[in-house]
Amino acid sequence: MKNLLYKEFRLCMAVQIPIFFLFVLMMLIPSYPYLVAGFFICNSIFYSFTQAAVDNDVLFTTLLPVSKAQVVASKLRFMLVIELLSLLFFLPMIFVNHAVHGTPNAAGLDASLTLLGALLLVYAVFNAVFLPRFYKAPHKLGRHFLLSTICVFAFIFLFEGFMIICGAAKDALPLFGWVEETLDCFPQSSSIWIRQGIFFAVCAAVYLLGAVLTKKRAQRNFEQVDL
Amino acid sequence: MKTLEVSGLTKRYESFLLDSVSFSLEPGYIMGFIGRNGAGKTTTMKAMLNLIHKDGGEVTVNGKSFTGNETACKKEIGFVMGEFDCYKKSSLRRITQVTKRFYEDWEEKAYRGYLERFSLDENKKISELSAGMRVKYALALALSHNAKLLILDEPTSGLDPVSRDDLLDVFRSVIEDGTRSILFSTHIISDLEKCADFITYIKDGKILASTDVEDFRHGYLLCSGERSQLEEKKPWLIGAKAHAFGFTGLCRAGDAARFTDCKTAPADLESIMIYTEQEGIHEESAL
């Protein structure tokens, strides 16, 4: 498997990926839905798939002494590495954002551990929609990306929308107030850190479970594909 | 133990059926795989390698079933599908560095030898190579991991006659030690005449013959006669071309007694293929 991952980085990774990582700087924009930055990381992965399609990567890889299931698993691992790597860039930006702005984000989630957890959910949605479809019909790459983009933005809209509703209805429903005060803020106390940490851990578990299910579905699809 | 055994390989498409293809190849031999465009050669090769999902049949490589031993079987196979058409912006060096990690039996010395023999510059990118050089690079990769079976889909198509001849020499030297075998499809029948020991002929998804080249050739005769004889000979002709002065055609060697009053000659592979594919009597048009 490590050889396949090596192949992904040496032959398939789009040169634009490091540039796309600069989109974490969007967290310096005041009043902005920062989850959108996660979409650009998904976009960078799509670029790698596009380049790989031009380079007949699926055929080359399938001819190597590996099974079709391993081909799929390695591609998913490549996606996970890029996505998790992006979190390492997002993490310090939480503190930079707080130092620069210091006020709550009026247009979406505040820079927080909650944001990192939600980013994992964005990636999970992208992976779940994009990868199984790609391995069902590798030549319809653009269509799969369009569908996954729609799903990612629908998720961002719903998640951010829920947080806005929580903020607006916090006086009417104490639970909403608790959600807003606990999750949608820069953590100032250790108890908030812990609560947001638990939320992040739950998101990470969903992300990993999603990855396992995505892999199985993509592998099942790829077994039926004629190259 | 047979290097390759294909039995009952079946693949159904809406408009094409690969119909229970079976053949086998012993170690130390070259088998030519012939047939018209669309006859099922590439489909057979892809189904053998699990690149397409087969509807039935089994493939064994050195006694191991491909199903369930895919990785082990692929390590023993070198596959070339025409020219190398992957990672066009990457250098040969980079692609080789990645590829060789997958093969424990990678032979660096052999690889360097093929680079030199084929005049390949490792620093060049795939996009900078001609079609012929890309075929050579694909072959260099396939030949350098001590594969016991080489499956080559039209490897000589893009090459000039000198390179083709050189490649056929390489093929002969590859099987010399008696442990390796080559299955290769081609439209250039003269290449097969030079190096193939066995031939497998596929037509419309069905195997017509899979046998020793000499036996295959001796099974047919070329015949020619007067135009007036054509009607009488028609039932025993596999295919023929009629022209102003008579006809030339192909018959089975077993029917030679029917053609004692015609001129007969040993059949070559190309004629066998042409007349078998055309079937019936065709009028040769005159300008």
Question: What would you say about this model in short?
Answer:
The complex is a heterodimer of chains A (227) and B (287). Chain A is mostly helical and 227 residues long.
Estimated structural class of chain B: alpha/beta
Give the DSSP E fraction of chain A (strand runs of 2 or more residues). under 5%
Put simply, the count of helices of chain A is 9
Computed Rg of chain B: 21 Å
* Biggest sheet character of chain B: 6 strands, mixed
Poorly predicted regions of chain B are: none
Query: How much is the average pLDDT of chain B?
Result: 90
Descriptive report:
- The complex is a heterodimer of chains A (227) and B (287).
- In chain A, helix 3 packs parallel to helix 6, helix 3 runs antiparallel to helix 7 and helix 5 packs antiparallel against helix 6.
- The longest helix of chain A is centred in the last third of the chain and has 34 residues.
- Chain A is built from nine helices and no strands.
- Chain A has one domain.
- Helices cover 74% and strands 0% of the residues of chain A.
- The model of chain A has no long low-confidence stretch (mean pLDDT 92).
- Chain A is mainly alpha-helical.
- The two termini of chain A are 22 Å apart.
- Chain B has 287 residues and is of the alpha/beta class.
- Chain B is elongated, with a radius of gyration of 21 Å.
- Chain B starts with a strand and ends with a strand.
- At the A-B interface, helix 1 and helix 4 of A face helix 2 and helix 3 of B.
Feature tags:
heterodimer, A: 227 residues, mainly alpha, B: 287 residues, five-stranded mixed beta sheet, 30% strand, elongated
Topology:
The complex is a heterodimer of chains A (227) and B (287).
Chain A: H1 2-12, H2 17-20, H3 35-54, H4 57-63, H5 68-100, H6 113-134, H7 141-168, H8 174-183, H9 190-223
Helix pairs in contact in A: 1-5, 3-5, 3-6, 3-7, 5-6, 5-9, 6-7, 6-9, 7-8
Chain B: E1 4-12, E2 17-25, E3 30-34, H1 41-48, E4 56-61, E5 64-65, H2 70-75, E6 77-81, H3 92-100, H4 108-117, H5 131-143, E7 149-153, H6 161-175, E8 181-185, H7 189-195, E9 198-203, E10 206-212, H8 213-218, E11 220-225, H9 230-233, E12 237-243, E13 246-252, E14 263-266, H10 269-278, E15 280-283
Parallel strand pairs in B: 3-8, 3-9, 6-7, 7-8, 12-15
Antiparallel strand pairs in B: 1-2, 1-4, 4-5, 9-10, 11-13, 11-14, 12-13
Helix pairs in contact in B: 4-5
